[in-house]
Every structure is written in C-alpha cells, then in structure tokens.
Design goal:
Blueprint lengths: L1 E3 L5 H11 L19 H9 L3 E7 L2 E11 L2 E9 L8 H11 L5 E6 L3 H9 L3 E2 L2 H11 L4 H5 L1 E5 L7
Parallel strand pairs: 4-5
Antiparallel strand pairs: 1-2, 2-3, 3-4, 5-7, 6-7
Amino acid sequence: MIGKCEQKDFDDIFEIINDAASAYRGVIPADRWHEPYMTEEELKRQIDEGVQFWSYSEDGEIAGVMGIQFKKDVTLIRHAYVRTTQRNKGIGSKLLDHLRSISVTPVLIGTWADAKWAIEFYQKHGFRLLPKEEKNNLLRKYWTIPVRQIETSVVLASSDWENK
C-alpha cells in the first residue's frame, strides 16, 4: 500500500534511508560517504525544504520510501530507498510510478554516477541520462549540494523533459 508519510513516520524514513544507503558504501567517493549516510538533521532539513516522502507498506511495516519535491518548473524525485531485506520485489517501481502519476511537470532524478544499478533502474522506467554540461547546470539550479557531489553525480530526465 502506498501512502504519504506523516511526522509519525520520521523514524522509519530515517532508518530505511540509512539501511538502504549501505549499498553506496565503497561505490560513491570515500569523501562523500559518512555514517550515518543521512543524519536526522539533514532529513529534517530536506522535509523543511519541501521534500514530501511517500511510503510503500506491507503488513503494517514500511518497506520503502521515496521523496518528491516540486521545484519551479520541474519535479524532483529524491531519496528513493527500499529496506535491504525487501529489495527486488518491485517496491521502488511502485513508488516511482505513483510519484510520476502525481507530477504535472517533467521529472528529474539525481543519483551517484557510480551507482550503476540506480541508473539502470531509472532507465528501465524510461528516464534518460543527460549530458554532463546540462547535468551540472541542473544540479546547480534545482539541488542544494556541494560542488564535489555535482562532480560525482548524474541527472536523469523523464521523456517529457526538454532543456529549460
């Protein structure tokens, strides 16, 4: 079941993000990795900046979360994570499909350049990798991330994306 997360779900969101982010350990640049991967303060900041989290639950337990952020003329998919024990069951696909259905603007997704599985997941869902220069411009325009993260990330766009 997919539902919009509420304040009461904060601890589950935090736990799932940090559990699932373990897949990035040793993949993303060492200078970008830290424990926990996302602090409680950073998660609160993301929510305060407009990231709305949605969850997929089974038997009363949240198995995955994905954020959506409406920014100017685009929709950003943010922080897509599924519990390590629940991976490869279609949960991420269900969440992504739902968030795309509530978006009225082109969708952009940023992820780590070396997270090949994540890139392939989004490509399987019709997203395309954007060229480096466009990616850099978009990360500066719509995200608030350090320069080093811009250097080591990619952006994927939905099929209705036209360079803005």
